[in-house]
Amino acid sequence: MNIRPKASLIPPRHAHTFYSGSPEPIGLEYIAGSLVAAGIPAQLTSPNELRASVPGFHSEFSLFSSTTAEYPRVCIEAAQAKNDGRITVIGGYHACGCTNDTLNGPFDYAISGEGELAAVELIRTIVDGTSNCIRNGDRTGVSPRHFVADRLTDLDALPFPLRSEARLGTYIPYDLMWPAHSQQKNIAIVLASRGCDHSCSFCASQTVWGTGVRFRSPENVVREIRDLKSQFDTNTVVFVDQSLGQVKEWTIDLCNTLESSRLNLSWYHMSNLDIDREALAAMGRAGCRKIGLGIDGLSPRAMELMKPLNSQNTESINELLDYCNSLGIFVKAYLMIGSPWETEDDIKEYMEHIGNIRANEIKISYLTPFPGTRDWDRYSPHLLTKDWSHFDTVSMPVVYNPIISVQQYHEIRTRLFRAFYGSKTYADVTKRMLDKYPHYIESYREFLYYLKTFDMISGEEAWIRLINDQNKTIAYSSAPPEGNVI
Predict the structure, then answer these.
(1) Is the pLDDT assigned to residue 135 strictly greater than 70?
(2) Which of 322, 347, 365, 437 has the fewest CB atoms within 10 Å, measured from its CB?
(3) How far apart are CA 164 and CA 33, in angstroms?
């Protein structure tokens, strides 16, 4: 559903745009902060490129970070950088999962793992003329151009990301969130922990962060947010931790520290279905206004095949969603289709189940086997395309299904969106939320235009009358979002 929306339906942006529709490049901002702290001048020139220079050295450096879907575009930028005489380095998810692929491209060096200290060491090694001794752990078959980074242990010791207002404000403009997009200011990404205790077959987290979770101190996290407030007047933060809330005690401590800081901040984060209720209550008090939960399966069979260790059933999941709503927290359910084992019977079952999910918003992704994951090992021989730009989880299914075609999957996805947002369950959930939190009406009104724009509703849904009965109006700008934002 790569549909260009009507410009008149898009809410206004309040911040400058560094790259329209892109998230803040938090990984490169962290590396930039570490380089500058080490006395190496650095500046971000695009969402994927960081340029650095060492006084007296003959060449500049271009450091790139890339997801798999961004990789073709990043290659174009890197090729230009090489033509301009810069030394090119790549890190990020794609480089960690597919290092040989990147070293066959327009990159002189690749970094696996966390790049902050590695980038400093790599640049100093090259400047010192010892680049044939790039540390790779003496691994057999590992290229001398492949830098294997040490796992960071003291996250509080890292300099804060080197930020600019030009790079803030475009991450979640079309999601259902409080404050509504028209009231958000300079949205920032914050990483309070790194890694995940889970090991989902489709997730590339461990290729970068390794196993287990490491935490920043709550005081360190709040200090960064306080800086964001004072420098950029940020009122909305997105925590991009893989699963904030996994460790109850640390989560509650972080939330209590946030609450006592009185920063008047709203925030969104991702978590797992096993999140603790006491931790959720602390989140609600600390300003959490949205949580993303990876449900993934749309039927009991799908849940079992995708997350065999997940003991949750539909009713227990709905009870968790209801509890979040009672705290004033919107829930975005992350769901997945496009597995090669899916049949027409599975799709029918999905249509029946999706109308019973008591979430406020859904994202339906296609199964996408990223390099470095167990799904890649399993499904890479059965790919429909090797064009990395389609590995964005939403533009098309990338794994061959002998029964369901690509076009059929596009139609199924649209029908699932409409079945969810057109269900009586969704109308009931919306009414309960607005009865308890009537000021959320502005968020729903802006979200309604988003849903219409991307053909996810018919316009006749019962809950829409609740929204249209309000007398408020919203002004819209002429700037459409870029790419696949759903």
Answers:
(1) no
(2) 322
(3) 12
A 10 A CB-CB count for 301 gives 15
**C-alpha to C-alpha distance for 259 and 264, rounded to whole angstroms:** 8
Q: Are residues 129 and 222 in the same domain?
A: no
Instruction: Tell me the percentage of the chain whose pLDDT exceeds 90.
Output: 59
- Half-sphere exposure of residue 35: CA atoms within 13 angstroms, side-chain side: 25
CA distance linking residue 52 with residue 294, whole number of Å: 38
Residue 132 confidence (pLDDT): 55
Instruction: Give the model's pLDDT for residue 16.
Output: 31
The domain of 48 spans 26-148
Phi, psi (degrees; rounded to nearest 5) at 89: -130, 140
Is 345 among the domain residues?
Answer: yes
Contact yes or no for 456/418 (Cβ under 8 A): yes
Helices 26-37 and 116-127 pack at an angle, to 10 degrees, of 50
Same domain, 134 and 168: no
Where residue 286 sits, what CATH number does that domain have? 3.80.30.20
C-beta neighbour count of 338 within 10 angstroms? 22
Dist CA 116 CA 119 (whole Å): 6
| Whether residue 69 has pLDDT greater than 50 | yes
Write down which residue in 148, 179, 211 finishes a domain. Answer: 148
Confidence label for 150 from pLDDT (cuts 50, 70 and 90): confident
How far is the CA of 365 from the CAs of 275, 362, 397, 399, in angstroms? 22, 10, 9, 13
pLDDT at 449 over 90: no
Within its chain, how far is the Cα of 74 from the centroid? 18
pTM for this entry: 0.87
Burial class (CB in 10 A: 0-12, 13-18, 19+), 437: middle
Number of domains making up the chain? 2
Q: Using an 8 Å Cβ cutoff, are 166 and 18 in contact?
A: yes
CATH of the domain at 46: 3.40.50.280
Residue 390 has pLDDT above 90, yes or no: yes
Whether 480 is covered by a domain: the verdict is no
Residue 351 resides in a domain: yes
Average pLDDT over the chain reads 85
**pLDDT tens per residue, range 234-260:** 999 999 987 788 889 999 999 999 999
Which of 148, 174, 190 finishes a domain? 148
User: How high is the pLDDT of residue 76?
Assistant: 96
Q: Let me know whether 262 and 342 are in one domain.
A: yes
Q: Is residue 444 part of a domain?
A: yes
Whether a cis peptide bond, with omega within 30° of 0, leads into 47 is no
Whole-angstrom distance, CA of residue 117 vs CA of residue 340: 41
Cα separation of 137 and 133, whole Å? Answer: 11
One domain, residues 137 and 174: no
How many residues appear in the chain? 486
Residues 143 and 176 in one domain: no
| Residue 384, CA atoms < 13 Å, CB-side half-sphere | 21
